[in-house]
Amino acid sequence: MGRIDERFSNLKSAGHSGFIPYIMAGDPSLDTTVDLVLALEHAGADVIELGMPFSDPLADGPTIQAAGQRALANGTTVADVLKTVEAVRRQSTVPMILMSYCNPVYRYGLKDFVTACADIGLDGMLLTDLPPEEASAYKEAMHDAGLDTIFLLAPTSREARIKAVTEASTGFVYYVSRAGVTGERHSLSDSLGPMVGQIRSHTDLPIAVGFGISTPEHARAVAELADAAVVGSAIVRRIGEGGSDPHLAKKIGEFAAELAGPLKG
Description:
Number of helices: 12
CATH class of one domain: Alpha Beta
Strand order of the largest sheet: 5-4-3-2-1-9-8-7-6
Number of strands: 9
Largest sheet: 9 strands, parallel
Distance between the termini: 26 Å
CATH architecture of one domain: Alpha-Beta Barrel
Order of helices and strands: HEHEHHEHHEHEEHEHEHEHH
Shape: globular
Radius of gyration: 17 Å
Strand content: 5-15%
Structural class: alpha/beta
């Protein structure tokens, strides 16, 4: 059993929902990224989703795009991101997945990249622009390396797409709660409950809900329906506002604990 499977199994036994925070590697610096991951783990994170900066992030809203641009301006490379994960692994066993796009992964070399991810202790990957129908080589490489493949579903997903994504996914299924790009929202979609139920009819995998989860109240609502809440933009915005604050990791950890609390109640 991998780290992600084990974590969700423990959460289910405890009657809790998972907390999956997202941050961008290299924003505001690679050293701070390590501190942020450790602070998020201490705050109650069950899985860390680490973004790899890319110049054309199709699924990212303005907040996360800006974080990626800051990381790229800092000179953050794919190799730097991998070294950062390696640095985290020397201090933590928290499950970690990498969120990226096809271009940097295939430019690096698919098999070489997957091997490197396994060697440094990553647990899985989400390539947001890779549909399951075109992912056979990726799935094979990830399976051989013992890494989880996380795919996305959206409110517009039909039965055939839900079936394809749930069959291709391991670890958990990522449900995008709103059509469009990432970003903070004032409320959750009315379709959230019915869609989570529809996805459950196709899989026993945990279902994580993301895109627009911004407040403890949102997290509490998600906990009633799904197995985990993913929070990205609300955290990333605060990182951007904090900049070089020497207490940034501590402050982000405090905010993360507010989000995680309703999921553990």
